[in-house]
Amino acid sequence: MPRTPAAKTPSKAVPAQTAAVKKAAAPAPAPAPAPADKEVKTRKPKLVRDGFTMPKDEYAAIDALKQRAATLGRPVKKSELLRAGLKLLLGLDDAALITTLQALTTIKTGRPKAARK
Length: 117
What we know:
117 residues; 4 helices; 0% strand; mainly alpha
């Protein structure tokens, strides 16, 4: 028995206005409520990049401390040493902080001028 092609059903044309109205009338999907048992994400602290000037002997002390920490089995970065030093300063009482700050020599801030040739 020969097969006859299936008759195509005519598609119903939807006027452009009706389709636009249906799209505009469709309610926006409501945002899913956050589960209460999900842990709150902690944000990483914002980092700040900065430059500073210090005497060569104090800068060499940073390298000496880095080498010392590496021999103790805990390699550190320069920024980690500076942050550790800040934590120690924060732990000082007022008198010890003033004494420590007065022991520093005052230096001229800013970039050193390039040597003239």
